[in-house]
Write a structure and sequence with these properties.
The chain has helices at residues 2-12, 14-29, 32-35, 64-74, 129-147, 175-178, 182-193, 220-235, 245-253, 255-264, 274-288, 342-345, 383-391; strands at residues 45-48, 56-59, 78-82, 84-86, 99-102, 104-109, 158-162, 167-172, 206-207, 210-211, 313-315, 353-358, 360-361, 364-366, 369-371, 374-375, 378-382, 395-397. It is an alpha+beta fold. It folds into 4 domains: 1-102, Alpha-Beta Complex (DNA primase, PRIM domain); 104-193 and 293-309 and 335-342, DNA primase, PRIM domain, CATH 3.90.920.10; 199-288, no CATH class; 349-399, Ribosomal Protein L9, domain 1. Mean pLDDT is 88; it is low at 1-11 and 295-304.
Amino acid sequence: MADEAQAQLSIANPEEGFARRLFQSYYERCQPEQVAPPDISQREFGLGTWDKKIESRHMAFRDSQALKSYLVRNTPFYISYSAAYYEFPDGRPMPRKGWMGADLVFDLDADHLELECLGKTHPKKFPCEKCLSAVKEETLKLIEEFLVPDFGFSKDEISVNFSGNRGYHVHVRNGTVRELSGWARREIADYISGAGLNGKSLFYSRFKGKLEGPTPETPGWHGKIAKRFLQLLQAGKLAEFGVEPVIAKRLQKSMAKVIEGVGRGNWDTVRMTGPEKDHLVEKLIGSAAIQIEGMGKVGDEVDVGVTFDVSKLIRLPNSLHGETGLAAKKVASVDALASFEPMNDAVVFSDAPVRVKTGEAPVFIMKNQTFGPYKNQELELPEFAAVYLICKREANLWK
């Protein structure tokens, strides 16, 4: 019956049928443990179709082999699983599942970042190298500047996977976070995103006529502000963060004195008026904060997001993303993230030629090959690039 359904689907929608067969072949090649999360029997799963990322949920699998068999037999275009652990993961409504705890999960997406290129020089659905690089840096910053030093998590408790499209998912698993309530998780998200942080509170009182403030070694947000200020000063990027060019130039000119002063906590060496300094600190908070899914800009009201919604579903690591044909590739380790390149490392399909007729697509790079721009062209592409455009709905099969 499954083969007949796929044959009919191929006739009705050749592109969907083509993509489904390739997705199926990928899952056939996978080892069961590649696509199974820890404690799989306690997780809820949600499935998506060609047209909808999550169409159904409340599914459960007893083990990794059962999950793999389902993926091969039914081949959804999206599959997500719960950060939460349940006594009865397929129970409904939600209270009947018997919540037993949840991992701490962060969803970072290039779409959350205020990048000039995204949606301007290229469509949002086609992230460029700059987008992917920026969101990777944001992910590294989350781990190395917040999760490890401020919360004390070890890197062994943290796993990272590419989202399959234009971001990363960070999972923290240990006994303490598993028991946290939604409100406790919200507090963590607020801290990391700088929500409600008053920049003026970072500076202390005047002592002998000098304005005291944080040093780069000061713990928590105080030290982050000082460290970020010196980073931008030394990189000559203060003007990019809202500092008036004339002021930025003046600070650059007296850089050695400013660095020495801030290193001692003497912020009078940052010769700016009170309002100018307040504006600078506001920009520094925004620069040092992490923009995670569900969070607005710094100071905005917080919406429900994956970090503190204890019943939220998140992309299954190593599963395929129906909008790109890329794998939600699990990164080997936190330390390996810096060298991870999604448009190379998350590509799973072959170089076999496929003839397509394109819609509109900007330049994109996959497996170190440059493609596009395209506009209503008939051409032959490697399978991985053809799948990418087909999943983006910007190519049809051409015979």
